[in-house]
Amino acid sequence: MISKTKKELNPQEIKTLCASAGFVSIENIHALGAGEFNAVYAFDADGKGYALKIAPSVDTPVMTYEKNMMRSELFWYEQLRAHTNLAHPEVVYSDLSRTLLPSDFFIMQRVAGKQMNETQFSQAEKETAAALMPQIAAKLHRVSNNGFGYPQNGLHETWAKALYAMTEAMVEDAASMGQLCENGEKTLAFIRKHQAVLERVPSRMVNFDLWEANIICEPAANGYRFVIIDPERGFWGDPIMDFNCFGFGKPLREKKDGLHIYNSLAEQPVTIGRGEEIRNAFAQAYLGVIMEVERYYRYVPGDEGWTRNDQVCEFIFKNAFACLDEM
Question: Are 218 and 225 in contact (CB under 8 A)?
């Protein structure tokens, strides 16, 4: 998909970056994945497959939380490696010096398989796949922290303060592009209204991008090995923020199946009550603010991404704001 932030390189430029990491015989270079922020290229070397991921140039306008986001991605890969048993690609080289080009980049093992949304499952495999997202979320949320927010933007003492700062930054990002973000302002008002609920939230490792496109299904003897990719949008915060990944756009009371699976593995099970419904609505509203504002940084009106974001935002703001207004 067309995106203004993706840095395009020619094969010789890619070979130069790979050579800096010690790779010599580079073959089969081609663009990889459907991501819309970083550029990703596949290549083979010494009989193995690798992926080269390149951040936008430092002079490319990006949203506040996206600044230095590749460094955040490396941090979250390390958290996955150190604190979970979830499968993820091994990072074999990273260069954050910005000397070879004005971008961060890293190289990781390339997983042999397809994205989950492109995989054809048998009926039995569909049941396993349907339970995967809440299971992954439960394992991620066993990892805790004292602060809240994006590591690359600075942490806050409470989730209420962090969510307010994160949303306020989005409103300011829109203003920097000459745009108003009324839905962001409305979300800020709801944060002030429900501050007491948000103050009591624990800090957990939140992925906030748990979609089928970010799970690679690698064929294995007993079916598939599910591998997480692209954790760069993670933050420390409310675990319910990851509940968008099952029962998308629905109130918590309509996510009972996914919640049952989640609670069977969760260190701290989640009940369904007023506070939890409010937190679930904020997960939707914050995603909506991101999708509304990122249009100005990635697309132009008429682009597929712009149109998609418009449609999704209309749906989730309607549901989220109805809940936050009622509660």
Answer: yes
| Helical H segments across the chain, by residue range | 11-20, 69-83, 123-130, 132-140, 159-176, 182-193, 195-199, 256-265, 274-298, 304-326
Question: Are residues 155 and 149 in contact, defined by beta-carbon separation less than 8 angstroms?
Answer: yes
CATH class of the domain at 11-111? alpha beta
CB atoms within 10 A of CB 109: 15
- Name the segment(s) of the chain with CATH classification 3.30.200.20: 11-111
CA–CA distance, 135 with 129 (Å, rounded to integer): 10
| pLDDT tens-digit series, residues 116-149 | 999 999 988 988 998 999 999 999 999 999 999 9
User: Measured between alpha carbons, how far is residue 298 from residues 109, 150, 208, 292, 295 in Å?
Assistant: 27, 21, 19, 11, 5
Of 23-32, 195-204, 256-265, give the lowest mean pLDDT range: 23-32
* Tokens read off for 139: 């394992």
* Neighbouring residues of 85: CB distance < 8 A, sequence distance ≥ 6: 139
Strand pairing class (105-109; 223-228): unpaired
The pLDDT of residue 228 is above 90: yes
Report yes or no: 91 and 105 within 8 Å, Cβ to Cβ. no
d(CA 49, CA 283): 36
Token pair 């914050």 is found at 286
Higher pLDDT, residue 85 or 130: 85
- CATH 3.90.1200.10 intervals, the chain: 115-326
CATH of domain 115-326: 3.90.1200.10
| Residue 2: pLDDT over 70 | no
Report the distance separating Cα 212 and Cα 210, nearest Å. Answer: 7
Compute CA distances 240 → 123, 200, 203, whole Å.
29, 13, 11
pTM: 0.95
Question: CA-CA distance, 234 to 152, in Å (whole number)?
Answer: 10
